[in-house]
């Protein structure tokens, strides 16, 4: 069996910098036409100038014949100015602004401390410029249980935000719960959408502890209960246009994952398409796969759909055990395991 799909895009990707960037960017460029590139570098990408420079460094590590198009984002801070949004829109390089609540995840220490209190003028300018806000949807209060942080964020931040600024385009990134699905559905199309990662569709929180602690399955938002995984599968395979592909592929050096205080992030770029295909196949919804991988994202962002195609062959293939690079190695999701759908180009 073989599936032909319009070339997919990845609407949520971490490419890093330095030799890690050089090691991972070609994997994404082979599978995807475009990617929304996250700005949580050190220092974060907070200005259009920095985004333009970062895009240039990405292009430099890609093969000469690559037509991969990185769509850049700005990292929102308490002091981002409305004028920066005007510059971003004019640049035709920056396509969105990312909200990290301060302290929520990797390199989020410069993120926002009080969204509506500190960023309202910027958000108004974004609505005006049709610049989407991409949201890491978790509260950071350490007294809130880590498994409830998404649900609490929806009620305390997201709902008030969209009530105040219904014209603002908002993508709730990497949703993980039935509560998020309910919220997205309650927004009923229009300006609110969500990305869903492969790991939140195929794993539940048991995978963190199966046979011992599994650092390579640790990401944020953390994996949830099986009922939540099932709600996500139903949502993406329903055919709703509000969901689209965003891998949240987030490579870390092996030694930063396998240590006493390991980083959050799963490197899934090499396996993402195979896993999405498996999820849709198992739900009997392969006919809905292409809209999720290739249509709903560009339609939401107001960009043209890709015109080239890729193929997925139903054929077993083995995931690499490790991906070496000059200063270490990366362990991909499902390292060394067999998967069923093989991308071919
Ligand atoms: O697991 C994660 N890793 N979640 C995030 O939100 C950030 C990402 C990273 O940059 O490593
Ligand atoms: Zn991310």
UniProtKB/TrEMBL annotation:
Keywords: Hydrolase, Metal-binding, Pyrimidine biosynthesis, Zinc. The keyword Oxidoreductase does not apply. This is Dihydroorotase, mitochondrial. GO terms for biological process: 'de novo' pyrimidine nucleobase biosynthetic process; 'de novo' UMP biosynthetic process. Pathway: Pyrimidine metabolism; UMP biosynthesis via de novo pathway; (S)-dihydroorotate from bicarbonate: step 3/3. One of its GO terms (cellular component) is chloroplast. Residues 10-320 form the Amidohydrolase-related domain. Its EC number is 3.5.2.3. The keyword Cell inner membrane does not apply. Belongs to the metallo-dependent hydrolases superfamily. DHOase family. Class II DHOase subfamily. One of its GO terms (molecular function) is metal ion binding. The lineage of its organism: Eukaryota, Viridiplantae, Streptophyta, Embryophyta, Tracheophyta. InterPro entries: Amidohydro-rel, DHOdimr, Dihydroorotase_CS, Metal_Hydrolase. Gene3D superfamilies: Metal-dependent hydrolases. It catalyses: (S)-dihydroorotate + H2O = N-carbamoyl-L-aspartate + H(+).
């Amino acid at each position: 069996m073989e599936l032909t799909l319009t070339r997919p895009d990845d609407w949520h990707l971490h490419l890093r910098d330095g030799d890690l960037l050089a090691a991972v960017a070609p994997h994404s460029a082979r599978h995807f036409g475009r990617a929304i590139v996250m700005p949580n570098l050190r220092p974060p990408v907070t200005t259009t100038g920095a985004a333009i420079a970062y895009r240039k460094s990405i292009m430099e590590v890609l093969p000469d014949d690559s037509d991969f198009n990185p769509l850049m984002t700005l990292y929102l801070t308490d002091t981002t100015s409305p004028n920066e949004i005007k510059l971003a829109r004019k640049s035709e390089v920056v396509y969105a602004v990312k909200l990290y609540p301060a302290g929520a995840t990797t390199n989020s220490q410069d993120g926002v401390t009080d969204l509506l209190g500190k960023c309202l003028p910027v958000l108004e300018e974004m609505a005006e410029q049709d610049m989407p806000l991409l949201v890491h949807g978790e509260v950071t209060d350490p007294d809130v249980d880590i498994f409830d942080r998404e649900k609490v964020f929806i009620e305390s931040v997201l709902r008030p935000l969209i009530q105040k600024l219904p014209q603002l385009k908002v993508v709730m990134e990497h949703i993980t719960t039935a509560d998020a699905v309910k919220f997205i559905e309650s927004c009923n199309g229009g300006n609110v959408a969500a990305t869903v990662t492969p790991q939140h569709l195929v794993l539940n929180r048991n995978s963190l502890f199966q046979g011992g602690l599994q650092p390579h399955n640790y990401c944020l938002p953390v994996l949830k209960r099986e009922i939540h995984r099932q709600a996500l599968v139903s949502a993406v395979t329903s055919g709703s246009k509000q969901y689209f592909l965003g891998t949240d592929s987030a490579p870390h050096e092996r030694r930063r994952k396998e240590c006493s205080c390991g980083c959050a992030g799963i490197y899934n770029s090499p396996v993402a398409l195979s896993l999405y295909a498996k999820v849709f196949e198992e739900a009997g919804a392969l006919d809905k796969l292409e809209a999720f991988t290739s249509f709903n994202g560009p339609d939401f962002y107001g960009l043209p759909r890709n015109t080239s195609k890729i193929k997925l062959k139903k054929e077993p293939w083995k995931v690499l055990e490790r991906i070496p690079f000059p200063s270490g190695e990366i362990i991909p999701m499902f390292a060394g395991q067999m998967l069923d759908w093989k991308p071919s180009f």
